[in-house]
């Protein structure tokens, strides 16, 4: 069950996810559900409505029924599992919850989704308080929205929707960052992630601080650290961006990038010196080389804020993935 939680959080605000409807958020706003950072709590911190919670909290119901929040996924895709995190909610968490999914085109308003063709993903299930409640999902279709229903009321800190990104090829340019999480890139291997997870390098936008990147422990033996990334589709690679922003006393001394299409690795960028706190862009050794995976080696260790792999993806593969998951 833990395996799916290592996948991309499709609902994360960092990818553009947002709450488009909540029937009640008296004590705490439903927008907290999709925040990327872990929930926090400061005891005896009160406002005019009571203890402040970093989560969604509804009022106490005095009759039957339930409370509902609808989330537009930041990246549409196939859901492998959901995490209904009730962190810090102990005497006020819901007894039960269920999750439904929806695939729709365009950008419908939350009020227009009440009577949509929702698909059950997680049946009504008991929850525990102050706990990550993990539920696998077996439906392998592509979804754009999820609906969290809690019974009868209470508080949920975060709703994480873990899965694989499946972008709509019709909405993608011809040349793009084929390593980006938002386009379907994903980390498949890493030598060390002591201070920061490598998937941070594939997030949208610029890194905000040093903790918003990949950083290894200090290496005390021979060798070097590395990370491997599966690209959105086999792609003709033109440029790689290695951004060491915010890493000043702990940037790698050098880096290299290799590509692979059928299991054999070939050079894209030879071992090249890097500067601290600097966005670097490098043309690949032979523009137009096709790769389905890339491997970034850093020497000997350190931190990288962002990795971008700019290329032209195989549209047929993107379209096949989209059709298969939309059936």
UniProtKB/TrEMBL annotation:
Family in the record: Belongs to the allantoicase family.
Name under which the protein is recorded: Probable allantoicase
Pathway: Nitrogen metabolism; (S)-allantoin degradation; (S)-ureidoglycolate from allantoate (aminidohydrolase route): step 1/1
Allantoicase domain residues: 16-165, 184-313
Keyword Hydrolase among record annotations: yes
UniProt-listed Enzyme Commission number(s): 3.5.3.4
Annotated GO MF terms: allantoicase activity
InterPro entries per record: Allantoicase, Allantoicase_dom, Galactose-bd-like_sf
Keywords: Hydrolase, Purine metabolism
Reaction(s) catalysed (UniProt annotation): allantoate + H2O = (S)-ureidoglycolate + urea
């Amino acid at each position: 069950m833990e395996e799916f939680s290592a996948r991309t959080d499709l609902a994360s605000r960092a990818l553009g996810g947002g709450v488009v409807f909540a029937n009640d958020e008296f004590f705490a706003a439903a927008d907290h559900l999709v925040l990327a950072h872990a929930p926090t709590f400061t005891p005896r911190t009160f406002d005019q409505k009571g203890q402040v919670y970093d989560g969604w909290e509804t009022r106490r119901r005095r009759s039957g029924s339930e409370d509902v929040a609808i989330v537009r996924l930041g990246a549409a895709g196939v859901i492998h599992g959901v995490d209904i995190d009730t962190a810090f909610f102990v005497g006020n968490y819901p007894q039960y919850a269920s999750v439904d999914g929806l695939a729709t085109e365009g950008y419908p308003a939350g009020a227009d989704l009440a009577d949509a063709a929702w698909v059950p993903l997680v049946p009504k299930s008991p929850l525990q308080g102050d706990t990550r409640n993990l539920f696998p999902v077996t439906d392998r279709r592509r979804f754009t929205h999820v609906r969290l229903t809690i019974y009868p009321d209470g508080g949920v800190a975060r709703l994480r929707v873990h899965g694989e990104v499946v972008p709509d090829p019709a909405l993608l340019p011809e040349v793009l960052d084929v390593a980006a999480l938002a386009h379907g890139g994903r980390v498949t291997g890493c030598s060390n992630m002591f201070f920061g997870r490598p998937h941070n390098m594939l997030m949208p936008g610029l890194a905000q601080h040093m903790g918003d990147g990949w950083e290894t422990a200090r290496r005390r033996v021979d060798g070097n650290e590395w990370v491997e990334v599966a690209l959105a589709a086999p792609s003709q690679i033109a440029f790689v961006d290695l951004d060491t922003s915010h890493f000043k006393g702990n940037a790698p001394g050098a880096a290299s990038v290799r590509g692979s299409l059928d299991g054999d690795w070939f050079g894209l960028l030879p071992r090249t010196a890097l500067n601290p706190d600097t966005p670097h862009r490098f043309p690949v050794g032979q523009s137009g080389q096709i790769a389905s995976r890339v491997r970034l080696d850093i020497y000997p260790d350190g931190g990288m804020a962002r990795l971008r792999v700019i290329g032209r993806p195989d549209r047929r593969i993107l379209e096949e993935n989209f059709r298969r998951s939309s059936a």
